[in-house]
Write a structure and sequence with these properties.
240 residues, alpha+beta, Immunoglobulin-like, 4 helices, 15 strands
């Protein structure tokens, strides 16, 4: 009889823990296209990221907390270092705090982060994150006792893929084209972007045409030094 009683109590305790309501809920919002570098998320002119901190526990008053960034893909994990010291954020029951890119800038600086699956030196060498789908969350932590008091209702997902430029198929490089009256010249290229760049991604190409005159000038120098005679933005891989 005693043994049966102990099992029932244990099950009840487990159910209570699994249905725990956290005092704080966080929501991270990201605006595509997603930067492939950490500092891209704190560009104040682009407003790429914002964090909503919703305080569910109405009994909290001037409760000191701090944040921890957690950024993960299948191969890389980046988190706020314990050595990164910030001033406490004071939260109150029932309020929602909104932090913008400028408020979160320190959490994306490499010197304040721990890296796994990618060394800090590897990142600093090229300033780019490896391709992948990254989940980005912020944990709210008790400032003095260092335990997590938040759950993430809506983690953000960043689809980070470095797309290579297209390859021109026609006309051939340095080809001589005989002009015969009013004719269309077909330009065609092959895309090299990843189909996993992000959901709903539609590539956009910018077609620019220069006149090289005199003919012995370096065409690359002409493109760098002068404006194109024709420009068009399109989504297809051909134009005539």
């Amino acid at each position: 009889m005693t043994r049966f009683f102990i099992i029932i109590i244990s099950l009840a305790f487990t159910l209570k823990v699994s249905s725990q309501v956290y005092p704080v809920t966080t929501i991270v919002n990201l605006t595509p296209p997603y930067p492939s570098s950490l500092d891209g998320y704190t560009d104040m002119t682009a407003s790429k990221i914002s964090l909503h901190i919703m305080v569910n526990d109405l009994t909290l008053s001037n409760y000191p907390v701090k944040l921890r960034l957690v950024m993960k893909s299948n191969s890389v994990a980046i988190t706020t270092s314990q050595s990164f010291i910030t001033s406490p954020i004071l939260i109150n029951g029932g309020e929602t705090i909104v932090l913008t890119a400028s408020d979160l800038a320190g959490y994306f600086r490499p010197e304040n982060l721990d890296f796994s699956g990618l060394s800090k030196n590897q990142y600093l060498r090229n300033g780019q994150l490896p391709d992948g789908v990254y989940q980005i969350t912020f944990e709210v932590i008790d400032y003095n006792r260092n335990f997590v008091i938040s759950s993430s209702r809506m983690p953000a997902f960043a689809y980070i893929f470095i797309n290579d430029p297209p390859i021109l198929n026609m006309p051939f490089d340095r080809a001589q084209i005989t002009i015969t009256g009013q004719q269309n010249i077909l330009f065609n290229w092959t895309f090299r972007h990843s189909p996993f760049s992000r959901p709903g991604f539609i590539p956009e190409y910018r077609f620019e045409l220069w006149e090289v005159y005199p003919e012995n000038m370096d065409p690359y120098a002409v493109a760098l030094a002068t404006q194109p005679v024709f420009t068009k933005t399109l989504n297809s891989t051909s134009f005539s």
